[in-house]
Amino acid sequence: MIFNSILYQVDSGVAQIILNKPDRLNAIDKQTLIEINEAMNSAEANHEARVIVISGNGRAFSSGFDLKAQMDAQPSGVKIWREILDLDFDSTMRFWNSPKPTIAAVHGACMAGAFEIALACDITVASEDAIFGEPELKFGAGIVTMLLPWFTSPKRAKDIILTGQDRIDASTALSAGIVSRVVERGRHLEVALSIAKGMALIDPVVVSATKKALNESYEIQGIQKALKNALDIDHSIESVGSPDKKAFMEIARERGMREAIAWRDARFAKAQK
Questions:
Q1: What is the pLDDT of residue 75?
Q2: Average pLDDT, integer, range 60-88
Q3: Residues 103 and 52 sit within 8 Å (Cβ to Cβ)
Q4: pLDDT the model gives residue 269
């Protein structure tokens, strides 16, 4: 497959998936998700690729799901939304379910669906300039892959999600258990690749079996059922369409995405004075 939205390479036992739409802050659309799945298929089938690292080119890991693409496509109805959200969910969970260890190397913005990909990875290395968030509710949207409550306290997860926080700095993310390590600005990929190359020296059968054992501790607690239930709820949210999201998208179509985001931020700034 020819990749247009990502770069893919294998070297020194490490498969790299690099989000490659820097002019759009690596916003994730349907094509990006398809390419991520193809890259994951290649990495998992390649015996030389023992660890998978995902990162982003340019100024950010990813701003999340591509709202402009959604605005242009104007999806509607249960069937269409189910297809969109299921692809997003399944693509994210590839990193959790992969028999090979996965590492996210994060810098700059890491929002919404991209944040969920970083959470799904076994290890997340964050540059000190990384900013995390789940701003979906402020757009009138739901959460596709509800992983956050499995990594931090219930109170903190509810606070982040229900208030749509999108300014969580790297040190706060570390203290909350959202990332594994924080490194000097710009060294996120270097450190992630160093970790990956070290892991690639370990017997892959042992690594895969141990990852399975680690994940099983979450399976016993019902993570897959909980995530699927949350996804079903998001199917309902998106297929009906909230007034907030309709208003946001209308402003975006008429005046542009920057104006729509400014409108959203102004609403909440006014309320929080």
A1: 78
A2: 89
A3: yes
A4: 82
pLDDT tens for 123-159 read: 999 999 999 999 999 989 999 999 999 999 999 999 9
Q: Quick check: 165 and 158 in contact, CB under 8 A?
A: no
Residue 5 is given by DSSP the state S
Q: For the domain 6-237, what is the CATH superfamily, name and number? A: 2-enoyl-CoA Hydratase; Chain A, domain 1 (3.90.226.10)
| 196 vs 206: CA distance, rounded Å | 15
Just list the catalytic residues.
136
Of the candidate ranges 69-73, 99-103, 258-262, the one whose mean pLDDT is the lowest: 69-73
Q: What average pLDDT is seen over the chain? A: 95
What is the H or E stretch that residue 205 is in? Answer: helix 204-220
- Domain locations in the chain as residue ranges: 6-237, 242-271
Q: Rounded to whole angstroms, what are the CA distances from 182 to 14, 26, 52, 191?
A: 21, 21, 19, 10
CA-CA-CA-CA torsion for 39, 41, 42, 47, nearest 10 degrees?
140
> Cα(26)–Cα(148) distance, rounded to whole angstroms?
22
Q: Which are the contacts of 154, defined by CB distance < 8 A and separation ≥ 6?
A: none
| Cα–Cα nearest to 65, from 150, 160, 134 | 134
Rounded-to-integer distance, Cα 74 and Cα 229, Å: 25
pLDDT score at 69: 84
| Ramachandran class of 2: left when φ > 0, alpha when ψ lies in -120 to 50, beta otherwise | beta
51-56 and 14-19 as β-strands: parallel, antiparallel, unpaired? parallel
